[in-house]
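Suppose you are handed only these lines of text.
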Amino acid sequence: MIDEASSFVRAVTRALRTVPLDPKGPPAPPGDRFLGHAGVLRDDPIGHFTRWCAEYGDAVTLRVPGEHMVLALHPDAVKHVLQSNAKNYTKQTRGFDKMRLFLGNGLVTSEGDFWKRQRRIAAPAFHRNRIEGFADTMIGATADMLARWATLPADAPATDVARELTTLTMRIASVTLLGKDLSGAADAVGDALQFLTLSTNDRITALFDIPLTVPTPENRRYLQAVKVVDDLLLPLIAERQRTPGAHHDLLAMLLEARDEETGEGMTPQQLRDEAITIFAAGHETTSNALAWTFYLLGRHRDVATRLYDEVDRALGDRAPTLADLPAMPFTKCVIQESMRLYPPAWIIGRRALADDELCGYRVAAGTQVLLSPFATHRHPKFWEDPEAFDPDRFSPERAAGRAAYAYLPFGGGPRVCIGNAFAMMEAQLILAQVSQRFRLELAPGARVEPVRGITLSPGPALPMHMRARGPRGPQPVG
Ligand code: HEM
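From them, the structure of the protein bound to protoporphyrin IX containing FE can be written out as follows.
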């Protein structure tokens, strides 16, 4: 808490300083005379980043009071930051500082040797062979959601599909992680986690936020929410450590995990931080990827029709299994293309430790470097007709030879998303299962815009009508 208060004082002092531009740094687009690009960052970063990507191509300097800031746009610059010179780029940024308040020192927020060890210990739990065991949970939870949709009358008002998907992915995340369903509306832990995510986002985007040591109503609610989560997790971890046994969830895998080099396992605090990190990192990202996919399919009937043909050919009337995924390559392309246009992780931040160079421009030590998957995924040098929704871009023929870091929905380099195989398996199974039964139609007049939180969601809601597909209508699932 003392650290947090002093970093607050440092932030205020820094914000009052004007930072001179580096003549050897990337060009700075025009901005406000006094506030530079601070207004852009608050009001419309993705629109401006995308325009600057088309106009400047490599990297730009952002003028923000109190910060040296560079936005790296070219895939080579992205690769340099995330992979080739990753050791020069830390997660000591405001965004990660705020996440640390409730995630603690888990895989997303930790650094250095500690992170390396945790990643080494956790990696086997995310190996394809281990996570395949979770497919049945994903399929069963989706079948329950579809059975509920099937009871809706044909003239029912539009449903907020984004909300439905959040509940679904929260259920899948909590069952696969802890063996418990926390998605129920009445579930205090689910509520607490949702509040912590929203509040953390507010703290990141606010010009200043009040340190947690000050007992404002918001801060008290925040600390209470952390307590609700810890009161569930810590006794659960203690009990599992006392009586290890017949559990097949991610927590069991983390409890069993041992460092290959030292033979050590994780402490209860580390297990708590990793569990809450995996939950937070895993469910909102996947639900947003799916929500955007249904939005895009609702707007592109031709693509939806091809998807239905593939799913019908591969599955007929039966529920999917994991073994069906290879027979549905277009389903995967649809998700990949949806994450190109609307990457849930729309911004990635780092801070340079030492002076460096990006695309020939100097980046001074201490500079905050932002990566914008949203803008780089629309880089006109790498993507033809970048605004078009065209899943065939991800067919093997068209993807061959594309610069690796032109597409980075899961980040890259040593800090690449550890859950990416889990997320792709979940998204493909859910998309196939929903598409088999329903065509989702955007409610007439619905205005859907990207809403920037920690992840990018369609908002303010995603009202859609679920139409039973084809002459068969909704079929019993399972
Ligand atoms: C569509 C879904 C997902 C997207 C778009 C996504 C995206 C990302 C991105 C971009 C990063 C890198 C962040 C950075 O470099 O600063 C990341 C890291 C991470 N993700 Fe995901 N993620 C998804 C699903 C998941 C799932 C399902 C899990 C767990 C079950 C997960 C767990 C993590 C963890 C633990 C990290 C930190 C890895 C490390 O630094 O070692 N993610 N994710």
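What can we learn from it? The first helix runs from residue 2 to 15. The radius of gyration is 23 Å.
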